[in-house]
Batch of 2 targets.
Target 1
Amino acid sequence: MTLPLPDLSLALLHHLVVFALVAVLYAQYLLLGGQPDMARLRTVAQLDKAYAGLAAGILIIGFARAAHGAKGWDFYADNPVFWAKIAVFGVIGLLSAVPTVRFLRWQKQAGLPDAQSWRGTRRWILAELLLLPVLPLLAILMARGIGL
């Protein structure tokens, strides 16, 4: 049996980047659980940049898998479960815009954010974390041909 190395490599890389994204998002959530201070603000802002890069990587690698992987683009293009997965990922991305804008604004201002805004930002990240499990559920359905 010959293993499709490019397909396996893309799948592995895709999963590793997803795990890294979850870790970064959870780290932000934990950091926002404490009181705001400059060190935490710098760290969550740096993590947010990493999060954006990882999210972009997931999209690029994911579409490379869909286009050049073992199943090919035709498997995905007409599958509503695939597009639902993309839509959920997009919603998570839209939710992440609020914390990103806040981190950028907070870094530009002279002082620290108030505790209410800090906690509110944590809730936005929690919403992202709560939506994340929908993605593997949709992937499982898709892998089993549901939606075709």
Target 2
Amino acid sequence: LASGARLLRAGLCDAVLVGGVDALCGMTVAGFTALDSVDAARCRPMSATRAGINIGEGAALFVLSREPSPVRLSGYGESSDAHHISAPEPGGRGALAAMREALARAGLTPADIGYLNLHGTATPQNDAMESRAVAELFGLALPCSSTKPLTGHALGAAGAIEAAIAWLTVAGDGRLPVHHFDGVRDAALPAIALVAPHQRLPGAPRHVMSNSFAFGGNNASLVLSHD
């Protein structure tokens, strides 16, 4: 989405089709299993019992254009913490940089965000890093959830699918995507506000953020807004 927005801003395109697609691959499953990163049960982001990801598949596509729309991509941020090929920087500095850049590009403050879709992979290192970064930037009151227990980690399609969920949230009626886990909070992590079943806001949030953090320390955050 950020690449599409740059093409529009540069005047190279009038409309851009963007998104992500990934199909389940046995070799990929074997690779993550070899890393001891796959949970045989449903994944449990932010849980004290979290034990790895569930690999999923899927696709989500968007049409970006300069035409006014009720929902818009108002900000995006990208960073690379270059800490490790498969592990995030433990303090969350790369994640913080991406989120701050997305807010700055959107002209917003942390208090303007009404919901955050976490990257939330249910791996020990990602969840620790992300919860620290979220708590540092937003405090502990912002409603957050990982939707990977519902979709699996769709890898190359994960960011697009979760951006679509963020789109539905900002265009909706105040219902928030539930944070589905076993309810056993990890006491070592900041107590960020995980969305409970049936939790909703009085109305749709005006601005939502979605995080995606990939191997190699490649981090991206999006802000979607409803005018």
